[in-house]
C-alpha cells in the first residue's frame, strides 16, 4: 500500500514538473501561456483543394475562473483578436466567434467566454495550387480577467497539405461539430427572421419559443447601441427595437455596417443569429 | 495641520525634482472639505454638455479643481498602473510622447491621470501609482478619486478611458486613447487625444467624439457585486401545498 502510494506521489511530482508544451504548428498541441488562457489551432479539413474555403480554428481556453472577451467586450475589457499570415493567394476572412456569455458587472454588461471558445477564421485557397504543404501563422491576442486582468498573446503555426485536383474532406469529429454548433447562424435561417433600420432604430423580428430574446451589438466607429426593448406576440413572435446613434461624420464613407447577435435563451449553447444591416447616410 | 499638509507636497516636489530615491509620500489625500464638489445632477457626463466639476488631490497633495483650468483643454485619462493596458501605453513611452505632441499643438493643455482604483488600500494605490509615474520621469498629476465619485460622474469604464474637455468646460470627447491596443503601430496609429486636441486647436468640430474604449475595468470601490457569468436559471422547486 505504502509502495503504491509513493509511486503515485512520484508520478504526480513528475507530472507537475513537466514544462508546458509549446504549440508550434502541430495539430492538437496545447500551450499553457502566461496570459491565463491557452490556445490550440487546427483546421476543419483533411487537406486544401483548389479554390476551397476552409476554416482555421483557434480554440482559446481561459484558465479556471478567468474569462476572455468577445469581439465587442462590452463596457470594459478588450476584444480577442487575430493576425493571420497566409501564403500568397490565400484570402483570409473575418473571424466568426461563438455565442458569448454575458457577464453582469455593476458598470454594465461585458461579453466573453469563461470556457473554451472556438473561433473560426475562414480562408479561401487560390484556384490554382500545387501538391505541397502550406503554413499559416496565427497570432492570437487576448485580455484575460478575473479580479485583475492580464494580456496574453500566442503565435501558432499550422501546416496543411494541398492537393492540386481534389477538395479536402471535412473533419467530422465530435469536438469540431460541437464547436460548429456554438457558432451563430444566419438570421434568415430563423423562422421569419428579419432585420431593418427604421428611423434611428434597428428592428429585428422573428419567431421562436426560446426566451428571453436579447441583442448584443458590435460597436464600431460611428455606431452606438442603446438599451433595446423587446415585444413578444402570439405564437413565439418577437420584435426587438434597438435605438441607435449613427455618426456618419465619424467615418469617411456614406455607409455604416450595423451588426450584432440576437441571443435566444440564456444558455451558451442556445441559438444565436447574426444581424448585419448596412445603414446609408441621409441625403 | 494645514501648514503640515502644504509642506508635504512641496517637499515631495523638491525630492522628485532633485531625483532623490524613495521620497516619503504624502499621506493619503482626503477630499478637500470632506464632500465632493460635483455638479448637482447624478447622470453620467454627456458629450456636448458641461463636464462634471471635480476637486481632487494629486500624488504630491496638490489640489486640482476643474474650474482652475478654464481656458485650457483638459485631458483626463482614467489610470491604473496595475492594468496591463495602462502599463503598456505608459511603459512604451506613448503617454510621454502624447504630452510632448500636445504641447507642440496647443500650449494650454492639461493632462491628468485619474485614479479611481479601490481594490487595494488607498495608501497603496497612491504609493504605487506615484512611484510608477515618478519612475517614468513624467510630471503628470495623478488625481486620487478613491471613492470613485468623479469616475462615476464621468462614466469612466476602463483604464485607460479618455475624456477631453474644451476651453469652455464642455466635454467634447470620450473613449479610447488610440486604435493601437498593443502599441505597435507607431506613427500609423490613430491617436484620438492628439486628433481631438488638433481639431479643437484648429477650431474644428470634434469627430468622432466617441470611440469605444478598451482596457481593464475601473476597479471602483463597491460592495460585493462582482463580474459573474449569466448562468441559466434553475427551475424553482415545486411549492408544496
Brief account:
The complex is a heterodimer of chains A (283) and B (241). Chain A has 283 residues and is mainly β. Chain A has helices spanning 2-17, 174-181; strands at 37-43, 53-62, 68-74, 81-85, 91-92, 101-105, 108-113, 117-124, 133-145, 149-161, 185-186, 194-198, 201-207, 213-217, 223-225, 229-232, 237-246, 255-264, 272-280.
Please write out the topology.
The complex is a heterodimer of chains A (283) and B (241).
Chain A: H1 2-17, E1 37-43, E2 53-62, E3 68-74, E4 81-85, E5 91-92, E6 101-105, E7 108-113, E8 117-124, E9 133-145, E10 149-161, H2 174-181, E11 185-186, E12 194-198, E13 201-207, E14 213-217, E15 223-225, E16 229-232, E17 237-246, E18 255-264, E19 272-280
Parallel strand pairs in A: 11-19
Antiparallel strand pairs in A: 1-2, 2-8, 3-7, 4-9, 5-8, 6-7, 9-10, 12-13, 13-17, 14-18, 15-17, 16-17, 18-19
Chain B: H1 2-18, E1 55-57, E2 63-65, E3 73-78, H2 84-91, H3 94-105, E4 109-115, H4 122-135, E5 142-144, H5 149-154, E6 158-159, E7 162-165, E8 171-175, H6 192-201, E9 210-211, E10 216-217, E11 228-229
Parallel strand pairs in B: 3-4, 4-5, 8-9
Antiparallel strand pairs in B: 1-2, 3-7, 6-10, 7-8
Tell me what you see in this structure:
- The complex is a heterodimer of chains A (about 280) and B (about 240).
- Chain A has helices at about 1-15, 175-180, and strands at about 35-45, 55-60, 70-75, 80-85, 90, 100-105, 110-115, 115-125, 135-145, 150-160, 185, 195-200, 200-205, 215, 225, 230, 235-245, 255-265, 270-280.
- By secondary structure, chain A is mainly beta.
- The radius of gyration of chain A is 22 Å and the shape is globular.
- The model of chain A is unreliable at about 1-30 (pLDDT under 50).
- Chain B has a single domain (about 45-215), classed as Glutaredoxin.
- Chain B is built from 6 helices and 11 strands.
- Chain B has a 6-stranded mixed β-sheet. In chain B, strands 1-2 form a two-stranded antiparallel sheet. In chain B, strands 6-10 form a two-stranded antiparallel sheet.
- In chain B, α3 (about 95-105) runs parallel beside α6.
- Residues about 1-25, about 30-40 and about 225-240 of chain B have low confidence and may be disordered.
- β6 (about 100-105) of chain A pairs antiparallel with β11 of chain B.
